[in-house]
Structure formats: C-alpha cells, structure tokens
Specification:
Layout (H helix, E strand, L loop, with lengths): L1 H18 L54 H52 L7 H18 L23
Helix pairs in contact: 2-3
Amino acid sequence: MEETSSAKFEQMASSIVSSRWVLFKDPPHKAPMSVFRTASSASDMDKDGSPTIQQKGVENPSSGEGSIPRAMGQNKARRLKEKGKANDDYAAQHEQNALEAVERKSRHEEWAKQIQEEMDDKNMERNTSNYTSMSKAYFDRKKKKEIMTRRQLFTSDYTPTMVDDEDDVDYRY
C-alpha cells in the first residue's frame, strides 16, 4: 500500500510542477506573440493568469526569433578581449614600423646627400695644374654645373626680381 501512496504523491507533485512550468520564459519588456493565442484563449489561462502548457508554442532556442540571446561564456569573452588587445598591439606596432621606416629613409637620404657633397668638394679641390687651359676650363664648367644642379642653386628658369623703389638698397660702391 505504501508503494501506491508514494506513487500517487510523485504523480501529484509532478503534475503540480508541470502545470506551472514554462518552457521558455520571455523578459517582460519583450514578449513574443504566442503561436496559439487567439481572442478566445483567455479561458485557457490558469487561475493566476499564466498560460497553460498547451497554449504555449515550443520555440527553437537556436532560431534567434523571439528567443533571448544566450550570454557569452567567460572563456569566449576572455579570448575576444585578448584578440582585441592583440589587434590594438598589431596596429600600434604597424604604426611604429611605418614611423621607423620614414626615419630610416630620411637618414639614408641625408647620408647619400652628405657623401655626394663630399665627392663634389673633392672634385672642386682637385689639382688641375697639369691640365691644359681648355681641359681645365671644360672640367671646371662641367663640374660646377653638375654640382650646382644637384644642390639646386642653379636653375634654368631663373628670373631676377626687380628691386622696389621703396627698398633702402644702395647700389653705389
């Protein structure tokens, strides 16, 4: 007899629990429309006003329609955070590399310019005493033109500017 009374108790307890059980509880601010709800379904409510199981439609939690999005796990959140930090680190490193490349390029240009100026100075100081006068004049003209062109002091489109009358320039020597 005890077996039947305990079986009745379990059946009664499970029926009470299952009568108030809600498959997917929606937040109060966003309640999806029930599939089976009609104007006459107000009579299908329990005494406390909650819908019965027959009235609720079974929703697929992975469909994303009307279901609450699942919270992100701690491991995934940590991985995303680390990935974000890594992306920031990559961007900072890329920017630093670009700045270093620009600096390296400018140093290289300065170095090349310095070497060229030293070569130009050597050419200008060259001993031309054993040259003939024509060779010396040709050499001097050619080297001066090359040097001045490289130093951008000589331009073919140079036009002298006229001095204004208002300037206090004295041309008498």
